[in-house]
Amino acid sequence: MRKRLGVWLGLGVLALSAGGGLAWCASLPPAPASAQPAAIPAEETAAALAALKPPKRARPLVAIVGVNDHTEVTDYLMPYGILRRADVADVMALSTEAGPVNLYPALRVEADATIAEFEARHPDGADYVIVPAMMPDDDPKVLDFIRSQAARGATIVGVCVGATVVAETGLLDGRRATTHWWSLRPMLKARPEIRYVADRRYVVDRGVATTTGITASMPMTLTLIEAIAGRAKAEEVARELGVPAWDARHDSGAFRFNRPFALTVIGNRAAFWRQETLGMEIAPGVDEVALALAADSWSRTFRSRAVTLAEGTGPVVSRSGLRILPDRASAGWTGERLPPAMWGRRPAEALDATLEAIADRYGPRTADVVAMQLEYPKRWTE
């Protein structure tokens, strides 16, 4: 998604430099009006929960798979951190190869195992395989892993543009599905057999679930917890996250490439002399979900990018046991540091606080650009 977005925005910057930028942007639609999404019928929610029940084990095994280069940070870390804190399943973060997993647009981590190591340890397969956005979206090892796990009875969950990875396997052909608004048309063009469902944060159909944009992994994961361990457990975890509701309601029409989005991104990218690198101090026990949301948001402004700072150069173990590899040593950092309180809150609150801080620093339209990329319903320019 970010790669394709970069192509379009690069063309926009060229258009501006040639004097045609205003005409190009004028041809785009205005920002869509916000609408109150319709409530989800109770029978639809019940059917989704029934379809997401653990297919094999009472305590299920969850594999979150990514490529070593360019796996989306929040797609990868949010399900991991939420499921680990819920303690209703055994959760493993996987990579295609040995070595660090470079997440985009920020953070580096160590996976728990490679795909090959996981398959050797668990020949009967996982109960759930969570597929984040990644580039490329047709990595042969990932596609083979998803197909083989599905054949062994695993439920596949494509998070955000991870749906396009699942689509590459052919598993979405003939099924109902959704994905991030930016990747929807390319996915349907490549796989016209997919039956797109609008106005849903997540869609479940015959052993395969898909979600809309990045922040949809939070309601999707809470729904998975509810399917595994019941409503009371999901409510407990939701309170810890600061999430009041997690059903599938969504206004798909509120997310599209529009004139304010394009003008803001072009303006932010064109002002290269104002680009910033911001340090985020991390320490053992850091909440990986809140950190991922904050780092992801600051790195999607087209004005700034986030790097992690720590006392040493070794891995920093997060709240849920993930090993985060700091980008820089804190002692040698001379740039600006973001206040740790920003990602020291409950994750949903950390996201709102970060977007408020972005609006204060760069203006509300930049906060909207970030929220649009995250497919987060809240707006800052109303």
UniProtKB/TrEMBL annotation:
SUPFAM superfamilies, alphabetized: Class I glutamine amidotransferase-like
Residue ranges of the TM segments: none
Source taxon at top rank: Bacteria
Organism the protein comes from: Phenylobacterium terrae
Sequence ranges assigned to domain DJ-1/PfpI in this UniProt record: 65-226
UniProt name for this protein: DJ-1/PfpI family protein
Pfam families associated with the record: DJ-1_PfpI
